[in-house]
């Protein structure tokens, strides 16, 4: 009888512990909703990916906020314009999601702010002075969320494979 | 004496040939209906009359250098959302009637992306043709058609153009027959 009570007590304590102190789980990047953005973070890989939506506010304000978050993490803020219908954009996402080592290395220390062109448009007031005519395209930001003038697009590499993309992105992000 | 005869025969041959050629219903030159450039892809729409009773509505899509277009046969919203087909379609308001299927002048090539099979045209221009029946009459008629395309290179994509309505004026069937 005492054993049964002890067993029940241990089970209850274990369940309570699990409830009170949930274990952090390491997993492949998944979209989760943050306050003003969807965040996909690869903390273990040392970079952050967030997605901003027009419904959440003015882009200029949001970029300033995200740049501050990037600075707090010691990461380089970069804006990426992409789309669900764009194979090169999806190839990059797939390489990151599959945790390709070359891509993880290239993206290390970056804070990538994704903007879907279907939501934000191409040439309108919502995206202010971001000018481009093809995607994917990346714009480096300063610590206040303004463009630094450093831009790169998919035309900088050949076929969309990590072996081609990673060295170019590494050089763009880190100047190496 | 021989020279004048030869000259006369030659003249008659030329005259007869010219007369016969003018009587034969030779293919007429295409009638240019519309052209525009959007997202760096040039589109030229024409009406061809390759033989009697046969009209072809055609659209030539010319992407920028190094870019390709997707096959007319991929789904309208892409494969798992990726890619967009190249299409020339009549709308429900169109005065013309489609008499057959859309044809391409170059076969699409297959490639695999994210476990899906895609079909894209080789780099460069592609022409799609649709056999149509023209509206009856001797006058030009206001009409419209629908254009869809998306151009990508191996590492960049231009914005897709989906279901763009293009206003055109097409000749009545009798008008073309009498040309």
Tell me what the structure shows.
- The complex is a heterodimer of chains A (176) and B (179).
- Chain A is an alpha/beta fold.
- Chain A is 39% helix and 23% strand.
- Chain A has a 7-stranded mixed beta sheet with strand order 1-2-3-5-4-6-7, with helices on both faces.
- Chain B is of the alpha+beta class and 179 residues long.
- Chain B has a single domain, classed as Thiol:disulfide interchange protein DsbD, N-terminal domain (Immunoglobulin-like).
- Chain B contains 2 helices and 13 strands.
- Chain B has helices spanning 2-23, 173-177, and strands spanning 28-38, 41-51, 54-62, 68-69, 87-90, 97-98, 103-104, 109-113, 116-120, 126-133, 140-149, 151-152, 161-171.
- The termini of chain B are far apart.
- The A-B interface holds A 83-91, 94, 117, 122, 133-136, 153-155, 157-160 and B 39-40, 78, 81-84, 113-114, 118, 150, 152-160.
Break the fold down into its secondary structure elements and pairings.
The complex is a heterodimer of chains A (176) and B (179).
Chain A: H1 2-20, E1 32-33, E2 37-42, E3 47-52, H2 59-73, E4 76-82, H3 87-97, H4 101-107, E5 110-116, H5 117-120, E6 137-141, E7 147-153, H6 162-174
Parallel strand pairs in A: 3-5, 4-5
Antiparallel strand pairs in A: 1-2, 2-3, 4-6, 6-7
Chain B: H1 2-23, E1 28-38, E2 41-51, E3 54-62, E4 68-69, E5 87-90, E6 97-98, E7 103-104, E8 109-113, E9 116-120, E10 126-133, E11 140-149, E12 151-152, E13 161-171, H2 173-177
Antiparallel strand pairs in B: 1-2, 2-3, 3-10, 4-12, 5-11, 6-10, 7-10, 8-9, 11-13
């Amino acid at each position: 009888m005492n054993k049964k009570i002890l067993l029940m007590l241990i089970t209850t304590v274990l369940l309570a512990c699990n409830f009170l102190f949930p274990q952090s789980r390491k997993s492949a990047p998944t979209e989760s909703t943050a306050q003003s953005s969807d965040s996909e973070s690869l903390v273990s890989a040392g970079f952050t990916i967030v997605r901003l939506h027009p419904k959440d506010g003015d882009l200029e304000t949001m970029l300033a906020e995200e740049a501050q978050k990037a600075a707090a993490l010691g990461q380089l803020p970069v804006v990426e314009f992409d789309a669900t219908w764009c194979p090169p954009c999806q190839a990059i996402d797939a390489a990151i999601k599959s945790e390709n080592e070359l891509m993880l290395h290239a993206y290390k220390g970056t804070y990538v702010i994704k903007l879907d062109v279907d939501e934000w448009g191409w040439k309108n007031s919502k995206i202010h002075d971001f000018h481009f005519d093809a995607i994917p395209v990346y714009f480096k930001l300063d610590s206040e969320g303004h463009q630094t003038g450093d831009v790169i697009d998919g035309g900088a590499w050949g076929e969309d494979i990590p072996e081609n993309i990673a060295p170019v992105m590494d050089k763009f992000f880190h100047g190496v | 004496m021989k020279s004048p005869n030869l000259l006369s025969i030659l003249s008659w041959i030329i005259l007869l040939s010219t007369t016969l050629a003018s009587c034969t219903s030779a293919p007429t030159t295409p009638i240019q209906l519309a052209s525009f450039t959007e997202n760096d892809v040039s589109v030229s729409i024409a009406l061809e009359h390759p033989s009697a009773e046969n009209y072809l509505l055609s659209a030539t899509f010319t992407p920028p250098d190094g870019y390709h277009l997707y096959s007319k046969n991929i789904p309208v919203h892409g494969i798992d959302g990726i890619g967009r087909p190249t299409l020339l379609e009549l709308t429900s308001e169109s005065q013309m009637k489609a008499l057959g299927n859309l044809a391409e002048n170059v076969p699409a090539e297959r490639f695999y992306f994210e476990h899906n099979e895609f079909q894209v045209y080789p780099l460069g221009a592609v022409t799609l043709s649709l056999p149509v029946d023209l509206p009856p009459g001797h006058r030009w008629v206001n009409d419209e058609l629908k254009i869809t395309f998306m151009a990508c290179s191996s590492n960049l994509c231009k914005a897709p153009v989906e279901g763009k309505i293009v206003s055109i004026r097409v000749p009545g069937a009798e008008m073309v027959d009498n040309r």
